[in-house]
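Example 3.
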Amino acid sequence: MSTTRDWLLDDSPASRLQASLGRSYRMLLALSRNPLAVLGAAILLILLLTAAFAPLIAPHSPFGQNLGARLLAPSAAHWMGTDELGRNIFSRVIYGARITLMIVVLVAVISAPLGLLIGAISGYFGGWIDKILMGLTDVFLSMPKLILALAFVAALGPGIENAVIAIAITSWPAYARIARAETLTFRNSEFIAATQLLGASHLRVITRHILPLCTSSMIVRVTLDMAGIILTAAGLGFLGLGAQPPLPEWGAMISRGRTFILDQWWVATMPGFAIILVSLGFCFLGDGLRDVLDPKQGGKS
Amino acid sequence: MGAAVPDRGRIQGAVASVAGFVLLTLLTFIGLLAITFFIGRVIPIDPVLSVVGDRATQDQYDAARAAMGLDRPIIVQFIDYVGAVFRGDLGRSISTNRPVAQDLATVFPATLEMATLGILIGVGLGVPLGVWAAARRGSWIDQVIRVFALLGYSVPAFWLGLVGLAVFYAGLGWVAGPGRVDIFYEGLVDPVTGLMLVDAAIARDWEVFWNALAHLLLPAAILGFFSLAYIARMTRSFMLDQLGQEYVTTARVKGVAEWRVIWTHAFRPIRVPLITVIGLSYAALLEGSVMIETVFSWPGIGNYLTVALLNADMNAVLGATLVIGAVFILINRVSDVLYRVLDPRSR
């Protein structure tokens, strides 16, 4: 074990692989010294496992109705009670992890590369390209995100895919800003000039040399933004514009439980705890990652 | 003599910053209009079809298309749209059958009242708590602020609203339920300003006033909680920056009382950045009110927007989006300018 460790922490790595593995290992070590970051990572690991093994964990089907067991309070048989159709809420919350995970991953996969590319192009070329792209970014940045997402969903029609598109449209500008700022810091540095002199195309410089250097601050920002994305997606679900019934999406479940909030509080309350837990997980991990990957920003708040 | 001669560089700087401000604000508004135009006219598959229905003849279809102005170039359509918006014409709502602008004018005061009480709660509690947390760094109050800030990021507003109703209305009976006033108080006072508390005070109808306050308290407190979380965290971080400065140490060494060090020395310089933070959170409250109003059946602009969304009432949706967006941008820009005017370093 200790030899692997020595190999990873070697100060003069012999290969690229050893260098990058060693870097990851050092970051992991730094991250593991931050208890909140570990807690956040643990919560997200649980989310992943829950989503992957939902059929094994859930005691009942998320869709199976049992009208004889409507609106039962939490008990040993139904940990989180049952809803108005007698469905087991715990099972639905478990399956809901899949939907939340899917939304979060899709939004990140769409908006982060989009923002990254726009910001890198803007910073790399400068001039009027920069002015136009950043003008567009600033316009989007100064709009209320939730309202904009609502209006987009209204035009596209309700549904989980459209909710993802609407959230992605409203979240890329922040990433473009970061990528541009990062690009500007090394745009005129020697290694970029050297690559250009070697005859590398703009495309190659951007994709092979600029984008990789922007990724760490991007990862931090995306992780920190995840809580907001989850809340917006749940909000769209709550308003009936996101995931549609009978899908066990947490926001939509809260919306159904709204009618019973005064007497059968558990129907609306339980999915809310799941949302809070997962959002907190992303906040904790994001804070920890920021301290490790982006020390300039950390320590202030 | 020097004071009498205007500093040319300074004036140029001021003119440039004002021009920059106006230009950026204008561009942002045009951007907002472009987005609502795009959402309203470009994304829908065929706006004509939704008017004439799919059994119309080709002639009827073409006539309707021409009447809606959709046969003209898109840029002309956009200019027409901007012109209509500036005349206050936002189209007609299909669900209320009234002009959208008129609808919005009726519902906006309700949102304004809730958001204003919310920000008062947020500032009134958030600033002192933030200062306290910074002064006692690492103490229990600091931990409480930390937890508040984290919850502010991770609790869904609509969920907190529902739980609040279950606990404080149904459970404890401390506050009144959804809506602005109880049904038998409705229409008792003349809507002079549209703000229920102000109108009741003008009419000296204290029964209505207390009832309206009982209804307003919970939604405003929940909105206030979210801005409190943000304001307290920012106040704490600004204060920590100041308390680490040498002038604070000097003041302490001189034997200045600790409360004086905190409130008259360290707090003064952070008032300016705090204004920006408060402006930003006020704008965020307008946005947050969409969810809260839906939960509390509060007849404001957020509720109007969500009802319109469910009825696919596009004119109303876009009108409400435009108004919330415009107010949001305006508050953002104004707090930005206030920051520059008030901060001596940027003069």
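Chain B is about 75% helix and 0% strand. Chain B touches chain A through 51 residues (CB under 8 Å).
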